[in-house]
Amino acid sequence: MAPRFFCTLLLAGSLLFAGPHPLVKGVDSIGLTVSDLDRSVEFYSSVLDFQKVSETEVDGENYEHLTGVFGLRMRTARMRLGEEYIELTEFVAPRGRPAPVDARSNDRWFQHIAIIVSDMDRAYQWLREHKVQHASPGPQLLPAWNPSAGGIRAFYFRDPDGHPLELLWFPPDKGNPKWHVTRDGLFLGIDHTAVVISETGASLTFYRDRLGMEVAGESENYGPEQERLNNVFGARLHITALRAASGPGIEFLEYLAPRDGRPFPPEEKSNDLIHWQTRFLGISVDDATQTLRNSRSAFVSTGAVELPDGKAGFRKAVTVRDPDGHAIQIVER
């Protein structure tokens, strides 16, 4: 996600606009599909200091209706870093497709989480010791000419299934003030999840005007540091940072150049390894479902789905896609 960031922009404190009838009140977690849950839990816990807080295994009709995957059995681990959460899901059956080996950061199925570190040099060395796969050649120092990004350090890498991840370090004048509170630990929490989009206006209509998130800042980022961070030659991005009342932010990465990123595969399913899912805490799942149907959003679930067994941690949910195909889920506890 990088560029963006300058993200960070993010916390300037002036919110530019919010929709009149918000459907969500916070971001609960970021989910991703993995091929081997035990391996992924070990990676995120031993390499990145996440703590596993729960693990569940489910099957049945209600979960099939929620995920759009028939005949499923899935295992999910909820993991915490600081105050933020991810959920790792392995589909025991049916197995989905692997990620394309030639995926690039400007393909529109790209999504990552930005993990804040207290010391970039130490964090990078730690990843090297654990032989983590690079996506950038090394940490990049964003240039001073960009007032929103100057002084930020960032690095892209991959988890065992190839999911892109980012390390971020903020100088004292950038980022959420909570990242500058003195605390123990090298890996502090998740600042945001970033998604590649095709057109900022359409994404704002969905996330701001429909869901009710608020714009926290925007920036245009380019230059050799940005190109190496994203590993995309000639990268020039328009970045927009959004926030809900709680949880990580969402950043739009619109590639102004190059424009050759591939669209989200229309046949993508929740059990495929390119699948990410941003979960929102909703106000009313039924109201959200009706609003999203009226706006012709693409549904992953069959509609609002009840989950009476209590295993999921919420009682009702709906899963849809944003204008570029990224999955979002709205839940009621």
Task: Describe the model.
- With 333 residues, this protein is of the alpha+beta class.
- The protein has helices at 37-46, 61-67, 120-129, 200-211, 224-230, 285-294; strands at 5-10, 24-34, 51-59, 73-81, 84-93, 111-117, 133-134, 140-141, 153-158, 164-169, 187-197, 214-222, 236-243, 249-257, 276-282, 298-299, 305-306, 316-321, 327-332.
- Strands 2, 3, 4, 5, 15, 16, 17, 18 and 19 form a nine-stranded mixed beta sheet that branches. Strands 6, 7, 8, 9, 10, 11, 12, 13 and 14 form a nine-stranded mixed beta sheet that branches.
- The chain has one domain: 2,3-Dihydroxybiphenyl 1,2-Dioxygenase, domain 1 (Roll), CATH 3.10.180.
Range of strand content: 35-45%
Mean pLDDT: 93
Query: Ranges with pLDDT <50 over ≥5 residues?
Result: 1-19
Write the CATH homologous superfamily: 2,3-Dihydroxybiphenyl 1,2-Dioxygenase, domain 1
How many strand segments? 19
* SS element count, helices: 6
Kindly report how far apart the N and C termini lie. Answer: 30 Å
What does the radius of gyration come to?
Answer: 18 Å
CATH class: Alpha Beta
